[in-house]
Amino acid sequence: MNFHYGPENLQSLLGIAVILAACWLLSENKKRFPVLLAAGAIAVQVILILILFAFPQSHMVLNGIGNGMQALSDATSHGMQFVFGYMGGGDQPYAVVNQGALFVFALRVLPLILVIAALSALLWHVGILKIIIRFFGAIFERAIGLGGASALGVASNIFVGNVESLIIIRAYLDKLTRSELFIMMVVGMANVAGSTMVAYVLILHDVLPNAAGHILAAAIVSAPAGVLLARIMVPEAAGRKHEKVDYSSSLKYDSVIDAISKGTADGMMVVMNIAAILVVMVALVALVNMCIGGIVVGGQPLTIERILGFVFTPLAWLIGIPWKEAQTGGWILGVKMVLTEFVAFLKLAAIPVADMTPRTRIILTYATCGFANIGSVGISVAGFSALMPARRPEILSLIWKALFAGFLATCLSAAVVGALPNSVYGL
User: Fold this and answer.
1) Distance from C-alpha of 308 to C-alpha of 35, rounded to nearest angstrom
2) Reduced to 3 states, what is the DSSP secondary structure of residue 175?
């Protein structure tokens, strides 16, 4: 493997430094910059990425993961066709002129979340998911110095989602410090739920080789990034001793059928939330665009997406995207912030392969793969407040800082990806 290091990799290194500096400027205690945590968190990211992509043996694992995700997608299609017939992807009763119009987001992507939510509950009930979460929890506890409860919460966040991870550590919520609470909020913004990963893969698989591997890697490496930026902005008090946990959980199911049924019900709530937020946010953005559409800049009507594209262009360049593609990258980041990562992935997938370099598409995949958007603010406040009503004022005081840190956490992951030699990803 040719480990050539070029200017574009140094560009991403600069982006890492700028992101860390931006969070430090907003720190509640600038004298307590976590130097060892910064080194440990970035080292964990690099090691995980190298394990997943740099070795020939890892390709077999990633291919297996990709095939498994494709199997889940195919299986979901069978269920959709049984219930919705041709609307769910079955045989069409008429001649199809536009094949692209058959892709209906609500019928082709969202149902995957139902299946994965039910499967996740089943794997939790039989103990498989618990083992995986404890494994990553142990890594985070030892490598980046998290306490047992917060390490378990961060690890579970990767696979079961933001609010569900709080349920897993419900017995320890009243013991979380302000810093640990902020970590849970930031990591929740920086990560995505396991139930949505397959949906992202389905969206990107035609334009991004090894989409399953990159989505999985993005979900994992954004966790230490979120922890690092959270610790920089809200440092832990000196001499704080962490609570020991026994890894038991209040998240329990009575039987296999109970796990499947409750997992499906939970997945339905996620699907409805996603659908509702997408409808409202897209409508509101369209309304604003109608109001400002009379303003012409550069021969084209002004839109929120164009404005955010200009605003985030420097950030896109800093994470490693060439300047000629930075405005497009900034536009994708802006769409993610305002219209959620689902819409951003759809926009990214709609860019023809020939119109964007593979490296830029990979970097944007990592930068986009997170829940840090305006709509998630309301969801996070509602979820956290329901489980910790006494700390609602504190949650409200931290939520916008969490959005900022969570958004930059995915960008930090993207910058780390861009800082590694291109040959790691087969480019």
Assistant:
1) 32
2) helix
CA torsion sign, 278 to 279 to 281 to 287? positive
CA 21 to chain centre: 22
Task: Compute the distance between CA of residue 241 and CA of residue 260 in angstroms, rounded to an integer.
Answer: 38
Beta strands in 339-383 (DSSP E): none
Do 45 and 190 contact (CB within 8 A), yes or no?
Answer: no
> CA distances (Å), 63 to each of 194, 203, 212, 228, 416, in order?
18, 17, 8, 31, 23
Which phi and psi (to 5°) does residue 421 adopt? -55, 140
Q: What CA–CA distance (Å, rounded) separates 234 from 398? A: 10
Residue 167's pLDDT is 67
Distance CA 345, CA 343 (A): 5
For the segment 6-32, the average pLDDT, to the nearest whole number, is: 91
85: Cβ–Cβ under 8 A, 6 or more apart, which residues?
A: none
Question: Coil, strand or helix: which one is 146?
Answer: coil
The DSSP call for residue 144 is: S
User: Are the C-beta atoms of 41 and 227 separated by less than 8 Å?
Assistant: yes
Q: What is the mean pLDDT of the chain?
A: 81
pLDDT in tens, 198-226: 778 888 888 988 888 888 888 888 888 99
pLDDT of 4: 67
- What is the structure's pLDDT at 11? 92
pLDDT given for residue 382 in this prediction: 75
The rounded distance, in Å, linking the Cα atoms of 144 and 1 is 30
327: tokens are 């405005």
CB 351 within 8 A of CB 344: no
What is the token pair recorded at 380?
Answer: 């996070």
Per-residue CA distances from 174 to 65, 179, 226 (Å): 37, 13, 21
Please, which residues bridge with residue 37 across strands? Answer: none
Domain borders along the chain are: 7-90+101-268+388-425
pTM here?
A: 0.82
Handedness of CA 290, 291, 296, 297 (dihedral sign): negative
For residue 326, how many other CB atoms are within 10 A of its CB?
Answer: 21
| Confidence band of 259 (pLDDT split at 50, 70, 90) | confident
